[in-house]
Amino acid sequence: MREIWIIIQREFLERVRTRAFVIGTVVFPLFMMGVLWLPTVMRGSGELKRLALIDEAPPGVGDLFVASLTTLADSDAVNRYEVERVSGPFATVRPELVRRVLAKELFGFVVLPAAVATTNEIVYRAGNIANQNVLREVRNAASRAVMAERLRQAGLEAADVVSLFKVIEVDEAGITETGEEGRSAASSFLFAYVVGFLIYMITAIYGMNVLRSVIEEKTNRIAEVMVSSVRGSHLMLGKIVGVGSAALLQVAVWIGAMVLMTRQSGIARLVGITPEMLAGLTLPVGQAALFIAYFALGFLLFAAVFAALGAAMTTEQEAQSMQMVIMVPLFLPLLFLMQLTNEPLSTLSTVLGVFPLTAPIAMPMRIATVRIPALEIGASLALLLAGLLVIAWLAGKVYRIGILSTGKRPALAELVRWLREA
Fold first, then answer.
1. Are 56 and 50 within 8 A, CB to CB?
2. Which residues pair with 110 in a beta bridge?
3. Helix axes 359-367, 316-335, angle to 10 degrees
4. What domains can be seen in the chain, in order of their start residue?
5. Other Cβ atoms within 10 Å of 122 Cβ, number
6. CB atoms within 10 A of CB 379
7. pLDDT exceeds cutoff 60 at 181
8. CA 225 vs CA 1, 116, 169, 209, 228: distances in Å
9. What is the dihedral of CA 65, 66, 67, 69, to 10 degrees?
C-alpha cells in the first residue's frame, strides 16, 4: 500500500507543479468570464449606421419605418440607426446617394416604393451588403410599417391586432424531491450540457495524460526500473489515482472560482447573469455527490483503458488511431443530448444511463433535468463499479506484459494471449 501511495504522490505532484497546470487552472475561469462578458459588451455598445430614406410610400409608412428602426437602440439590437430623409424621385437622387455610400458618408439607402403595400418589396442598397444584421433589421422595420398601413386600410388598429396575437408567457419551473420549484427548462438544459461537457473534457484530457505518461515511461525504459520493485498493477493504480486527483483538484478550483465570481452581484451583472439564473443553477448536495461519484468512477474506468492502450502501443502516433475508438462511448451521450434532456426517462436515455461506458456522462445529464428513481441510480452505479473492476482487471493484465514490451504493435491475437498468460 505504501508503494501505491508513493506513486500517487509522484503522479499528482508531477502535474500540479507544472506551469501548464497552473496556467490552465487560472486561465479557464477567466476565459469563461470573457465568453460571457464579450457578447454583452458588444451587444450593448452597438454601431451607428447612417441610412438615407427615399419615401414614396403612402403617408405614415415612412414615419413608422423610421420610428421602428431607430427605437431598436433601446432593445438587444446589434446596431443603432440614424435615418436621413431624402426628397425627390429615386431615379434623380440615386447617383448622389451612390457617391455618398462610396465616400462612407452613408452606410446605405432604403427606398419605400409607392405600391409597397401591394408589391411587398422595398429597395435596399449598401456598401457592405453582406451585413446580415442590418438587412434583417431593415426588413423587420419595413415589415412592421407596411403591416400597420395594411391594417389601417382595412379599418383596424395595429395596437388592437397586436394585443390579440400577444404571445403567452410561461412561468416555468421543475418540481424537486421536496415538492418545491426548481430550475427552469432553459437553465436545466444549460446545466445538463455544462455537466456533460465538463465530465467529457476532463476525462478525455486527463485520460490522454495517463496514456502519454505510460508511453513515455515505456519509451524511456523507466518502467523497467519501476516494475523491478513495484507490481505492474500497483503502478497502474497509483498512476490512475494520482492523475485523477490532479483532475479533481483542477475542476474544484474552476467550480469554486466560477461560483465566487458569479455570487458577486457586480460581476454577475457584468456578464449578464440574472439572480433567477443563479437560483436555477443551484446544486443540491445529493446531486453534487452523485456527479462526483460518476465523474470519479468514469474517470478511473477510462483511465484504465488509456493505461492499457499506452502499454500495448509503442508510440503515441500508434495510439492515436485507437484513441478515437475509446472516445466514442464518451462522446455518444453528447450526440444524444436533446434526447437525454427532452426525454430523460425514455428507453434510449435509460440504456445510456446504465451502460457503464456511457453512464458517467449520460446519467448526470439525466439527473440534472428530472428526478431519476433511486433504484435506477443504484443499479447504474453498481454496473459502473462492476465495469470498472472488470476493465481494470483486464487492463492490469495488458499493462503488466505490455509495459515491458517493445518493438512492433501487438496484434489482436497477441493481446488475447497476454490476457490469458498474465
1. no
2. 53, 124
3. 30
4. 2-31+180-421 (no CATH), 47-160 (3.40.190)
5. 19
6. 14
7. no
8. 19, 85, 68, 21, 5
9. 80
Of the listed ranges 14-18, 188-192, 383-387, the least confidently predicted one is: 188-192
Give the E-state strand segments of 312-361 in sequence order: none
59-80 pLDDT per residue, tens: 888 888 888 888 864 444 567 8
> Are the beta carbons of 52 and 110 closer than 8 angstroms?
yes
For residue 368, give the 3-state DSSP assignment: coil
- Measure CA 9 to chain center: 33
Torsion angle defined by CA atoms of residues 226, 232, 234 and 236, in that order, rounded to the nearest 10 degrees: 90
What is the length of the chain? 422
All three cell numbers of 358: 456511457
One-letter identity of residue 80: R
C-alpha cell at 206: 486527463
Q: In whole angstroms, what is the distance from residue 210 CA to residue 217 CA?
A: 11
Identify the three-state secondary structure at position 53: strand
pLDDT above 90: residue 231: no
Q: How far is CA 4 from the centre of its chain?
A: 36
Q: How far apart are CA 205 and CA 196, in angstroms?
A: 14
Burial class of residue 91, CB neighbours in 10 A (0-12, 13-18, 19+): exposed
Is the separation of the CB atoms in 25 and 250 below 8 Å? yes
